[in-house]
Amino acid sequence: MIRKPAPPPPAAEPPAAEGSEPAKEGDTAAAEKPDPATTEPATLSVKTDTEAADATAKTWPQEQSDIAADPKAVFGKLENGMRYIIYPNAEPPGRVSLRMHIAAGSLMEADDQRGVAHFLEHMVFNGSKNFTPDELIPRMQRLGIAFGAHVNAYTSFDETVYMLDLPDLSEEIMKLGFTIMRDFGDGAKLDAEEIDKERGVILSEKTSRDTVGFRLMEQQFAELLPGSLLTKRFPIGTEEVIKTAPRERFVDLYTRYYTPERMTFVVVGDVKPEEIEARIKENFSSLTNPADPGKNPELGEIKKIEGMQAAVFSDKEVTSTDLSLVSVRPYSIVPDSSTRRLSMLPLGLANAAIGRRFERISKQDGSPIAKGSSSRDELFNYAEIGSFDVTAADDRWQDALPVLEQEFRRALEFGFTDAEIAEAKANVLNAYQQAVKTAPTRKSESLATGIARSINDGTVFSTPETDLEIIAKGLDTMTAETCHAAFREFWADQGMHLVLTTKQEPENARATLLAIYEESRSKPVEAPEQKEAVEFAYTDFGPAGTVKSRKEVEGLEFSQIVLSNGVRLNLKKTDFEKGSIRLTTRFGSGKLTQPKDMPGLDLFASSVFDAGGLGKHSVDDLQQILAGQNVGTAFAVGDDAFTLGGRTTPEDIGLQLQIMCAQLTDPGYREEAVAQFKKAIPMIFQQLRHTPEGPHAQMEAWLHGADSRWGVLTEEKLGSYTIEDARKWLTPALTKDYLELSIVGDFDESTLLPLVLKTFGALPARAEKKADLAAARKINFPKGAAEKTFTYDSKIAQGTAIVVWKTEGLRGNTKLFRRLNLLGSILSDRLREEIREKLGASYSPNAGATGSDGLDGYGYMMAMCVGKAEDTKKLADTATEIANLLARDGTNDDELDRARKPMQATMEKTKRDNSYWLGTVLAQSQEDPARLDLIRGRDADYASITAKELHDIAIKYLGQKHALKVLIHPETEKKAEGE
After folding, report:
1. Helix axes 947-957, 814-831, angle to 10 degrees
2. Model confidence, pTM
3. 127 confidence band (pLDDT: 50, 70, 90)
4. Sorting pLDDT into bands at 50, 70 and 90, what band is 148?
5. Where in 263-341 does DSSP place strands (E)?
6. Which residue, 487, 504, 521, sits at the end of a domain?
7. 712 burial type by CB count under 10 A (0-12 exposed, 13-18 middle, 19+ buried)
8. Residue 858 pLDDT
9. What percent of the chain has pLDDT over 70?
10. How far is CA 276 from CA 169, 176, 270, 280, 476, in A?
11. At what angle are helices 273-284 and 171-182 packed, to 10 degrees?
12. Is residue 352 domain-shared with residue 250, that is, in the same domain?
């Protein structure tokens, strides 16, 4: 596949579950162009080109469009040219999210500044007008703002975005937030000494982000966009510039491009716009533009090619073998409008239909492809790229290439069936309808990030209702014929690249590619077959059950119900997510019952269960049947339970329950699912061999005492499993074991409960309690101090140092783990200060407590640092010594406060988070009633923790005599010849 820049890190981490690892330090990282499809609101992305950027930066897209902006949004511009958007939004209440968008990124760099734009993003945190280098992060922490979780940033080719989520609206916090953002704008000190100290951090980040995928993307850009500035301006930069760029290079870029005319300030939250507007004017009106501001660069001409041009990219570490037809052309300037959005719709529907075709082909017996897709992308207001792709099964690219060519030609010649387009239309319409229904409870941080990401796109910030109105009218006119015409128009008269990406370049690969492609073109293709609609077959599960008992849980406001067949039901109605309902079912005992000497059976079973569909419907049938419906499930194997969960809407909850019960009573277990899994096995092991994932899996096996359930996988063993292996293991859990169903969200119980009684209540009787399986819960964790080295085959000199300290297990030790969470946060902050800030040896060192709620005594504190391969021993020793000092000297009240306040801010958010209520509170509340009192007392317990308690725990668990050091790095010695 053609590799495209990845989205930036999220604006904030999800809330930590009770007893789980706390939120850790995040990135202020070089990230590439975000994916507009992931942002809110769900509008089609529209961009302007680079030449128009200077002009459009001074206007709002709605000023040139027939699309109205959301009337709740306040748009403004200061006299200095800085724009702002204020959007009042009360979810979560009492909070606000700030985003500062700078319309400048790595493309604005000179040759001797390659990497400085991203470097600048780091430097604004390292000393500014109002904060010394050592002051800003502690100051934020004391007010409940965690570095990474609540404050973050990213740098792309054409933008830099700073993100700050504030935990409340107090004057102190609001003043701090606005002061920080103003300092980012023009207050960075850029001290030469601080720049030198940060060089190691940037180099560590470059090391941590060096992957085969990234290197291939650089090569592909160079091939597809020869002569373009893009190929020379990847945001992470060059090692030479990172090591040697003088202060003047930073000052030059900062003063010429961090200008108010390039800035857009975004404020979303539970605020009064007039008050925020006054703050913006007070804080940012004095920003000034330089006499000689930086200009947007010329990105270079996109060279048109004639005919077919073959290209091959090879690397022994690449995970899969891929083939692509690629079209590259200049991007045309088209302002956002109803016409523009609708013009993109037929091609989008066509691409969706092609993706479904490839999905069906990949499941055919002996199919040479594992998957396929068709797409259109815009790169940085500059290039438009079409890509038609397949992944070859078992590296059989010679067999996969005719599939690529013939499906491309089939779409060009015959287009699409009415059923294909109807399915795609139903899914698009449903997505826009759901955006309308869920709009009242959109989260401020997501909205703020979505607005910031759309600024360079020139997209009107319209309401979901407006978006739906535009798209619905367009969908009414969409036919198979209009989609066919759009597909032909997009690909007509285009020179194309035929791209092979594989492990080793075959001899005469380019000539062979073209020859196979030309031979395939000589074979006729037929029109796609029209598929008949199928009715859903699972609507009757027998006589409805009844409610046997009911209990209201005080203080947590949810209901615990036992049905007549023994099914446990937990219900909590909330208004946190309008139009959304979350469900999860825990049943059976998960990996506790996994047969001995069958490592990886859980991976195999979960894959074939999901991909097998239902007895009466294949996955392909289900996708057609359920098009436009908000239903779906995910099956997983946990340490002590199987889970089947999903998310739906009030309108579709009945269908969702039917699907879940159908999976329990009549799973598909199709051989096509086994075939699909076997195609993935070589890719799985390619990744295990050539990335740190392999050593991490080996480490997990070691920490689990070489228990076969967590054993090291082999290709032969994983490929030997059959449908009967999965069926034999899963059937008892699916049909008779203890089952607990939990439902949280926007539902009417008078409607929901009868639906549950007709589905889950109609199932055969379930066990009254879970099996004990005490022996299966025991794990032989490594004892005492030790050092282990795990290696993998890679030319990328990246190493990982991990230090593990055994603790009690999470199971039955919630209060201890709360203290370990805080201790881990303190240790993580010390690792950041010493290893990142002082030594510059690791980009994002972190620590935290983890453990299993299903195994006895399985818990540990872990510190992890990623850096240069040759530094792994030094990093492990340094992390161990930092922990030794924490055990020896303990912590103090200020350090404890700086760890606890951000955690408390996150915990406060969980009270309005359905995923927290579902996964942490309800999911096993009848299986383990004792957890409810612990949850009720969570906040008070965290508030009661003292520095002495943490010191005592550090003494007990941390320290050299308890440290297990794990060193992970590429193999350094070549195998002897003949081995």
Report:
1. 90
2. 0.91
3. very high
4. confident
5. 263-269, 308-314, 321-330
6. 521
7. middle
8. 96
9. 93
10. 11, 14, 11, 6, 42
11. 40
12. no
